[in-house]
Design a protein that fits this description.
The complex is a heterodimer. By secondary structure, chain A is mainly alpha-helical. Chain A contains 8 helices and no strands. The radius of gyration of chain A is 44 Å and the shape is rod-shaped. By secondary structure, chain B is mainly alpha-helical. Chain B is globular and about 60 Å long. Classes of the chains: A mainly alpha, B mainly alpha. At the A-B interface, α2, α3, α4 and α5 of A face α1, α2, α3, α5 and α6 of B.
Chain lengths: ~210, ~210
């Protein structure tokens, strides 16, 4: 196809009839893509052909709106599919040429920030549940919870922790220093000089646990 | 609903080679190539669906879905059948699925779909109006048809013969050249000039009907 033929417009008719190949076809497609006029002529050629074959195919009032709507739907569908692919795979989505401009609209939606925070919150919640579950799984069924492991080497080492048992009665925690203090002041313990219970020893007792 | 027979396209024998190239181009990512196919076939597809569905709004929706499905499946088109035959099959299947969905939807009346499961476009009585036929659409179609016929009547005989052999008889350029006893380049030129003459007559009407910008 020569340049003058392209200028004449003969190529569009030949394209409609499938008569262009190779370089001519590529040039014709480039020309169609760049020209609304060419697409309008393409439409007119095919309407005329349809009407020559069947007179009732002449109603083409909705043709342009049909193509416009289809273009929009295809772009949205393509964009949604690509957002889904990006969301579910770690790799890059393969870009397709369908209305790339619509992709940005969908990806940068107004509630993107909210959605990201929701995802972050959900991930943190799951992590917390998993951590607690792991800790609970490390504790044996008869093992008491370990609240303060550092207490073993402190001054209160003598204090004993009552072991959970159904056979023995509960035993009071006793501090040796408190026992010494109570023994030294036994004659004053329990009541003050006014025969009233001393405030700081109000709940202490000399009696045995069996009382 | 039975499967309608394969469509007969009198002008598809050589046109389809152009369709195949457009399909290959669309598969390679050129959406404009696919749009050319849509512009070419949308009226026939809507007409076909209009024979199966009563609801006018549904006709366009199903046609849209047909072209979207076709676009997604374009890479499966091998070119061993005509593109319109392949597209036709997608349209029929899409319409069937839409009808099944409609029948399951209790909010949709039976008037929305057409016929029974045994119905297809070939079993429809010839005088029954199709979905997208309204007085306005009939008037618009008649206007365009009258304009095309007037333009054809005004053509020089050699141009008219060339375009009739091409559009109605579906002959290739080589066959037309043989029939008209002229070079292929002359055939190409005659068909082009005939189309331009007809197009010049109908384009103002088309632009009034469907808008100006493609």
């Amino acid at each position: 196809m020569q340049n003058e033929e392209m200028e004449d417009g003969d190529w569009l008719s030949a394209l409609a009839d499938g008569q262009l190949q190779g370089e001519d076809f590529a040039r014709a497609m480039a020309a169609v893509a760049a020209s609304d006029e060419a697409r309008s002529r393409w439409h007119a050629y095919h309407v005329a052909g349809d009407v020559l074959r069947r007179a009732d195919l002449g109603d083409c009032r909705g043709d342009l709106s049909f193509v416009t709507r289809l273009r929009t739907r295809m772009a949205l569908t393509d964009a949604l599919e690509r957002v889904t692919v990006v969301g579910w795979s770690s790799g890059e989505a393969v870009p397709t040429p369908l209305a790339q401009e619509h992709v940005a609209v969908v990806v940068d939606s107004a509630n993107d920030a909210v959605v990201r925070w929701k995802w972050l919150t959900a991930a943190a919640s799951v992590a917390a549940v998993v951590t607690m579950g792991w800790h609970l799984s490390q504790i044996g069924p008869g093992e008491p919870p370990q609240l303060a492991s550092s207490a073993a080497g402190s001054n209160v080492a003598a204090a004993t922790v009552a072991q959970p048992s159904t056979e023995e009665p509960p035993r009071m925690l006793r501090d040796p220093r408190l026992d010494e203090l109570l023994a030294a002041h036994r004659q004053l313990g329990g009541t003050s000089a006014l025969q009233m219970p001393a405030g700081f020893l109000r709940n202490a007792t000399f009696d045995q646990p069996a009382r | 609903m039975g499967v309608p027979p394969a469509p007969v396209d009198s002008a598809a024998t050589t046109v389809d080679s152009g369709d195949t190239l457009l399909v290959e181009r669309a598969v390679a990512g050129d959406q404009r190539a696919f749009e050319l196919l849509v512009i070419k076939y949308q009226r026939r597809i809507q007409r076909l669906i209009g024979r199966m569905v009563r609801d006018v709004d549904l006709v366009e929706d199903i046609a849209q879905e047909t072209f979207i499905r076709a676009y997604r499946a374009l890479h499966q088109f091998r070119g061993d059948a005509q593109f319109y035959t392949w597209l036709y099959r997608i349209a029929v299947n899409t319409a069937k699925k839409a009808l099944m969905d409609l029948k399951r939807d209790p909010t949709v009346s039976e008037a929305a779909w057409r016929g029974s499961d045994d119905d297809d476009e070939t079993s429809r009585p010839g005088n029954e109006p199709i979905a997208d036929e309204t007085p306005e659409s009939e008037l618009a179609a008649k206007e365009i048809a009258a304009m095309v016929n007037a333009a054809m009547a005004a053509l020089p005989p050699d141009l008219r013969e060339a375009v009739i052999l091409r559009e109605i008889e579906g002959l290739s350029y080589e066959e037309i050249a043989t029939a008209m006893n002229c070079p292929i380049g002359t055939v190409r030129s005659r068909i082009f000039r005939a189309r331009e003459a007809v197009s010049a007559r109908i384009r103002p009407l088309l632009e009034n009907q469907s808008g100006k910008r493609w």
